[in-house]
Amino acid sequence: RFRGRLPLRPPSPSVSDPPVFQLDSCCSPRSLRSVEDRRNYTFVQGDVCDPSLLDRLFSAHHVDVVFHLAARTHVEASYQNPASFQRVNVEGTRTLLSAAQRAQHRPRRFLYISTDEVYGAGADRAFDECSPLRPANPYAVSKAAAENLVRSYWHRYQLPVIITRSNNIYGPRQHSEKVIPRFLSLLQQNNKCTIQGTAPKSRHFLFVSDAIAAFLLLLEKGAVGEVYNVGSSWEVPILGLAQQLVKMVRNVPDSEVGEWLEFVPDRPQVELRYPISSEKLRRLGWGAQVSWAEGIRQTVRWYQDNQDFWADQPTRPPPPEGAGPPAD
């Protein structure tokens, strides 16, 4: 089974060597060490926008299932370089869909992993899968556009696609561009947590094992052509998250927590929250098993035990103009 997350170990002899492609800054081969020796595992370092490489992979490996997770996801960076998000998230998705459609052995399932951000900001009502899409930042726009491509391949070519829209996934090994590892890395380096703006932003957090369970369930029971929200009931204010991590990492009393917080200018477009309903997925038998208390405990412990995991890409305080960590 070839999963759509590129890069994946050097290709087997049956696949001609692709051009050298540099790993994205948020990727680390160390994340894959636990599966390196498995017989059903192959790592291919390549570009998801490279049609020749994808054609060779589909031909050599007779792919049954694609989990397409390859994407640029840092909202802050999407404002600075939206073209790169369009290339990877939209053109990369089109290239992968085209290769799957052309393959002599066509995949039996193509799962596209999208985001709750395609709905735009929500207030009191949770979004379900029929809610209109109102993406409000370049990252979300690119994911919504990619969703349209995925649906078009279902309608035109009957490629058996399923789309998921999930809350913020967190857990061990996540790169420090995301808010939880960002805060942890800053605190471990004796720096303050930098919080964008003072608006009451919050996010729903889903532990990584619960997200994986949802994807595997949809592979087995999901209806082709459908969209499924993958959401969590644990909504956490970003300020409260920073305060909680300060207490866990720095072990300081409540009276000293504020000394480890710094407010910096907000991003151009602010979305306070992204509430979604996962009732459609729950009817298939899924439910989040890891509570917020347990998930954040496991995550903090992992980062404390593996402080050098991202050592070649150290987290630094924000520059003077002050772009803090993303809240999503």
Automatic annotation (TrEMBL):
Residues 315-328 have a biased composition (Pro residues). InterPro entries: NAD(P)-bd_dom, NAD(P)-bd_dom_sf. Pfam families: GDP_Man_Dehyd. Residues 309-328 are annotated as: Disordered. One of its GO terms (molecular function) is catalytic activity. SUPFAM superfamilies: NAD(P)-binding Rossmann-fold domains. Residues 35-299 form the NAD(P)-binding domain. This is NAD(P)-binding domain-containing protein.
